[in-house]
Design a protein that fits this description.
The protein has 416 residues and is of the alpha/beta class. It is 38% helix and 15% strand. The two termini are 22 Å apart.
């Protein structure tokens, strides 16, 4: 059930306080490991001790460990429990679907209390993950050696990217059968779209917050797009410093509709038979619901100034993970089989048979809205749209340095 953003001001203020312990940290280089962590790294053969990896030894040790515990921002990881268990019956896969913000919060709070429960943390929220977790030694980067030549350096360092995804705009093709509803993002701030645009709550969704911040980071292009839209320079409101902030201030003033669930948001835009379906800033991967749920969403692939806001989902081994070898094994599984190549013939259903054997942990994400960091993975059906869309990439440094200000800004403007 969706609720109007204007009713969320108090909730957002609480959310901002809940993460203030992270945002107060300063951007800096990685800390030196403690003696306890150093001993664990040496025993687990991670960090500087991860040399000349013996994969047969990793697998054997993983089976002896018998379990791998995952904190994840994605519910789709749970779909891997059965196939992973079928491949490795000796290892229990335990998945905690926490969302992006809670994956960060839970990991930090537990480790600060000397509770080391998680083996793997896989989430977005790039500024927090890089500066607040990796650089503070809550996470350890790990790239299986067999995949290093298959993944570009920018997707391996400082942290392994499990999959790239994007925030895009969905519209209902029953409501707009002949043409897309807009050609310029600024059109969504017009009165005719009041209460007609939806988005997942950026205060609780790291992926949505990354999209919000990416428009602000590219404020000069947003200003140029406004000039093309209105035929005159943009006039900023009181206390607003750039065109990116102005866009979101106007969206909030135009009664932006906020959802707790990305799947419900996709339904609000894409379900058939609606009189006034919403236009949605949504995770691109939900376009797969057209097939699974019978939705009629379409991706707005050509819009001024940008069509997709790209963000990474990272995968790392938690500090002092109790099952480090099982974590290594599951990391490799998430990246797909080493037998997978551009020449592989991947057919639906992706979660069964030969396709699953090759895709492994990529299978639940094999859709047009998700892109593997590997350079040898064939595109899924419809995947060509990704390359055709103009995109901006989230910047973790900008997220970390400017994110706290934007959280305050969002809370203030949502309460007006």
């Amino acid at each position: 059930m969706n609720i109007r953003f204007s009713r969320l001001a108090a909730t957002l203020a609480v959310g901002a306080v809940a993460i203030s312990g992270f945002t107060a940290l300063q951007t800096q280089a990685a800390m030196k490991p403690s003696a306890e962590m150093e001993a664990w790294l040496k025993t687990a053969k991670l960090g500087v001790y991860n040399k000349d990896e013996n994969w047969a030894e990793v697998v054997a040790n993983a089976k002896r460990e018998g379990e791998v515990v995952v904190y994840t921002s994605s519910g789709r990881i749970a779909k891997l429990v059965q196939p992973f268990n079928a491949l490795y019956p000796e290892i229990k896969l335990t998945v905690h679907d926490l969302g992006s913000v809670k994956s960060v919060e839970k990991t930090i709070r537990e480790q600060d209390a000397s509770i080391f429960n998680a083996d793997i943390v896989t989430t977005g929220n790039s500024g927090q993950v890089i500066h607040g977790m990796v650089n503070k030694n809550y996470l350890v980067n790990y790239v299986p050696q067999a995949y290093r030549d298959r993944i570009p350096e920018e997707s391996r360092e400082p942290l392994l990217v499990r999959v790239n995804e994007a925030m895009v705009i969905f519209y209902n093709t029953e409501a707009y059968p002949s043409a897309a509803p807009i050609k310029n993002l600024w059109e969504l701030t017009e009165a005719k779209y009041e209460g007609r645009v939806g988005m997942k709550n950026p205060m609780s969704s790291g992926s949505t917050f990354m999209g919000v911040m990416t428009l602000i980071q590219n404020h000069e292009e947003m200003a140029a797009a406004y000039q093309r839209y209105a035929g005159k320079p943009i006039k900023l409101g009181e206390g607003i410093t750039n065109a990116g902030q102005e866009f979101w201030a106007r969206m909030l003033a135009n009664d932006l509709v906020i959802f707790k669930s990305g799947s419900k948001l996709a339904g609000a835009s894409g379900k058939k038979g609606q009189k006034k379906p919403l236009i949605a800033f949504a995770n691109m991967t939900y376009i797969a619901r057209n097939e699974s749920k019978g939705y009629v969403n379409k991706i707005l692939a050509d819009v001024d100034p940008v069509a997709k806001l790209v963000y990474p989902t990272f995968t790392a081994i938690a500090r002092q993970a109790p099952h480090p070898n099982a974590a290594k094994l599951f990391t490799a599984y998430l990246l797909g089989s080493t037998n997978l190549s551009k020449a592989s013939d991947i057919k639906k259903p992706y979660m069964k048979g030969t396709s699953l054997d090759l895709l492994q942990g990529l299978a639940p994400y094999y859709d047009p809205g998700s892109v593997s960091p590997r350079d040898d993975v064939p595109l899924p059906a419809g995947g060509e749209i990704w390359a055709a869309m103009k995109g901006w990439n989230v910047d973790p440094d900008f997220m970390w340095n400017e994110g706290p200000k934007m959280r305050d800004f969002w809370t203030v403007h949502s309460s007006k």
